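During the reporting period, we have paired protein sequences with backbone structure tokens. One record among many follows, to show the layout:
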Amino acid sequence: MKNRPQKTLSAIAWSAVLQVTLVTVLTGFLLSVIYGLVYHYKQKQQHVDQLAALLTTSASTPAGANLIADQVRLVLANEPSIESIRFYSTTYSIADNAQDKGDETRSDWQNALFSNTASFNYPVISRDVSSSTFIDEALDASADTENQDTGSLVGYLNITLDTARMRSNWLQDNLLLWLFIVGLSLTWIMFILRKINWFIKDVDALTDVFKLVIENPELKQLPVTKQRLEFKELMQAKHAFITLFERLKNTKRDYKELAILEQQLHNKDLSLNLQRHTFQSMINHELKTSLNAIVGGLQLLDSQGLNIEQKDTADIINKGAQQLVIMLDQIMLLNQIDKGQISIETREFNPLEVIADLLAKYEPIAQQKGLALVSHIHHIDYVLQGDVNKIKQMVSTLLDNAIKFTTKGEISLQSQLTHFDRSNRWQIVIKDTGIGIDADYLNDIFDPFFQADSSQTRQYEGSGIGLTVVRQMAQLIGATVEVESTPNVGSQFTLTIPMSSQHHTQQQSVFSELTVIYYYYREKGHLAATLERLGAHVHYHQYEKSVIEQMSIKKVDIVMCAEDVQITRVISLTKSIRQYEKAHRALIIYWYPPQQAPNLGSFEHGIKAVGVDYCHSSDINSKTLMKLIKEWLAWI
């Protein structure tokens, strides 16, 4: 079915007005003509009735023959619409036979509009006449009469009207009036059309503005439109359009301001990140070197030649140096994690041996403070596979904090293994009876350099980055850290570590030679963790500059853009990578959120045009991911 062509409001208005005007004028003209003719016909008929009454009265007397003749000649001379007057001598009443009535059986409007002639019969009654010969001599026509009262019917008087001539004369007589009415009607119509034309021009002016806005997306100011007729609805439409235009302009301005602010924040983040990396590099090269010299010098001191006071002084210096070494190591480790320079080293280990080593290390430290370090093991001897060094470092930090913030009571370490069909879960719970943490600070303790008591006279020392390192390492190996605490009662940290099953162990070498950069905005997705479990070396970055720096250090096979990265940032990073690349070309993949799948066509062409190789939904499992990576790598 073909679509009807669109019509403008002006064309519709003009068409409607012309149609209504034409129908109204024609209807009024026809009705007035019909009414005028019928009315004129009735007036003529009444006049004929009056003449017939006069003539029949004269015809009913024997001495009225000459009078009737004069009257008939006078009527025919002065009434052009009367065609003839005749007398019919008969004693038979034609009222009994409808077929003899002639045009009297027709209605008035039929005679007035369509007939050429109209005949009327009038009875002639005589009271004292035996013959009607004198009437035949006087009249050229005859008339029929009926017996009335005591009179006798002599005949009928027939009068014939020329209705065609009557209509012609009536139209000629009213021609000037009709011309005046038509002129008045045309004047009124022109006045109405002029008013409507003003309205149409107002609508056309608004239409031109609409067209201008559509054709010029960057239009900053609406043109002035002059309105001749202030129609309420039209003014409301104009006001609504102006309001929407102003809102759009304000929205665009706000959007530009937000874009500028976002760029400023991004530049500031890059600057702060660069400053932090510079600062951490300075710590690594300058402070750590100097601190190593101090520690080495203390170790070279001959304790045999020192007195008790000198030994105490050396111990204090050595303790402070050791604390600085631990803090600097944590800062350097955090820096390496942020730069994606920490890789996962998976190997088989015995969890009982790990726990035994940790208890042996921290039990003497706890006893020095008068604390009891107890363990609750809920599994037998077992062999797991994972990054045991990172697990030891996380548990060591949690035990160290528990001992530091506990003055009396005990610290307990609980270990439990849960076996599933295709995976294992190792849960380590460290519980203390220390000072606890206020509920307002539970979400902040994992932030770098956070201290619940930030005063200079605080009781407990520390840099506040130990728990930050624990959280970053946990995320790196796919583990989680949860905390529950009550002030002055104690705290409980739960470390849950997923372990690969035998099936996953066999798959860990699939991508062992693959180097991947995972570019994300806020959250690290599950896809990168899956690649790590498949053996890939994954480096995490949040900034474009750090990605380029990483690619300048080491050959990168794949650059993955996480689903929370904006399209504009994906395009910017891709352009930078493609401009930087020379000998080796990295595979760039963008994982878009599943809810954006219906809009894939709106952004896929744009990002592929700048160099993105593949776009795929992030809602996939490890098996599908492994299959896709193998297929995509085969095309390189």
